[in-house]
């Protein structure tokens, strides 16, 4: 069976759409696997999930059940490395599951001991509820970084201390505070398949419908 040029164009359009979706939905996961705080026990302590959303990256940080974020002032609530960003204004939509009315902002250049120097940090800037130390801020932490790719995050902190991709100050259920970090490279996760197949099937269904109508016209001609 020969397809007409319009049908070929539809097929190519569907394939291109699926390819674009696959590229935009790529995900990298970093395990929070390092700490110097013995009271936290063995890891993993949570994970950082990066999802490419076209020209932006969506960041989601989830912690182990007994841990919450804390902002004591001696460490950063969350610190990370990032290349290709011209200013902190490219980092937006910062939210915790329970922000407790606090307002969070981004600043550049920080050391989050025992980890070394990071390019950016997120901390509370106003209405900080006792630095979050009264139980802390509940995960997940989420924010968006504009005009970057997953590879922009794939760089270790530099200088004195342990090199890490991410680090954050946390508190456990017993009131122990300290820093945890991700010192292992991120792992690329499979592209979400159901949405891709849904797009492909929708396109194929359209092709089948057009082909069927053409056959019907040929039979009745």
Overview of this protein structure:
With 221 residues, this protein is of the alpha+beta class. It has two domains: 1-24 and 191-221; 26-186, no CATH class. Helices cover 22% and strands 33% of the residues. The protein has helices spanning 5-24, 193-220; strands at 27-31, 34-35, 46-53, 56-63, 67-69, 78-80, 91-95, 103-111, 117-126, 141-145, 166-172, 177-182, 187-189. The strands form two sheets. Strands 2, 5, 6, 8, 9, 11 and 12 form a seven-stranded antiparallel beta sheet that branches. A six-stranded antiparallel beta sheet has the order 7-10-4-3-1-13, with no helix packed on it. Strand 8 (103-111) and strand 9 form a beta hairpin. Helix 1 packs antiparallel against helix 2 (193-220). The two termini are 19 Å apart.
Which characteristics define this entry?
221 residues, six-stranded antiparallel beta sheet, signal, 2 domains, alpha+beta, Ice-binding_C, 2 helices, seven-stranded antiparallel beta sheet
Strand percentage: 25-35%
Largest sheet: 7 strands, antiparallel
Q: How many helices in DSSP terms?
A: 2
Rg calc: 23 Å
Number of domains as seen in the coordinates: 2
Mean pLDDT level: 82
Q: From N to C, what is the helix and strand string?
A: HEEEEEEEEEEEEEH
Binned, the helix content reads 10-25%
Anisotropy-based shape: globular
State the low-pLDDT regions, or none: 7-22
Class from helix and strand fractions: alpha+beta
Distance between the termini: 19 Å
Got a strand count?
Answer: 13
